[in-house]
Specification:
Elements lengths: L4 H4 L5 H19 L5 H14 L4 E11 L2 E13 L3 E6 L6 H14 L3 E6 L9 E5 L5
Parallel strand pairs: 3-4
Antiparallel strand pairs: 1-2, 2-3, 4-5
Helix pairs in contact: 2-3
Length: 138
């Protein structure tokens, strides 16, 4: 029987991780509201997820290979949780389709199956969280 999240984290699914992240996003947005820099929300979200004993990396370089040449200066994922969930953060007044495409590209390049595109700039955070799927079986 698993008694702690730390023990359970190795078997958490992408969807279970996403649920925790969304709860934290709601908490942060409710407390701080929209309008801060993306970097502020990123730092706070990473702090909150670490309190949940989740393993994560921030500002992760996403390498791209082009004709045999590895290029790693182009892309950075905001947060990757447990090597299973990619989180792309924005703090903009309006979401654009290009943000979804960017997140899907990051998922494909990392071979991660689930991403969350989060816009802290939205006045209603429920409309600011989008799931982006790359072959995840639901």
């Amino acid at each position: 029987m698993i008694t702690s999240r730390k023990a359970a984290k190795f078997i958490m699914s992408e969807n279970e991780l996403a649920k925790i992240v969304v709860q934290k996003v709601y908490e942060i947005h409710k407390t701080l509201g929209p309008g801060l820099l993306e970097s502020v929300y990123q730092r706070i979200l990473a702090y909150e997820l670490r309190l949940e004993k989740l393993n994560l990396k921030t500002e992760v370089v996403i390498p791209l290979e082009w004709k045999g040449n590895k290029m790693d200066e182009g892309f950075r994922a905001d947060i990757i949780v447990e090597d299973k969930l990619l989180i792309e953060l924005k703090s903009v007044s309006e979401m654009k389709d290009v943000f979804l495409k960017q997140t899907l590209t990051y998922l494909k390049l990392t071979k991660i199956k689930l991403g969350l595109l989060v816009n802290f700039g939205s006045t209603d955070v429920s409309s600011g969280v989008r799931r982006v799927v790359n072959g995840l079986e639901e």
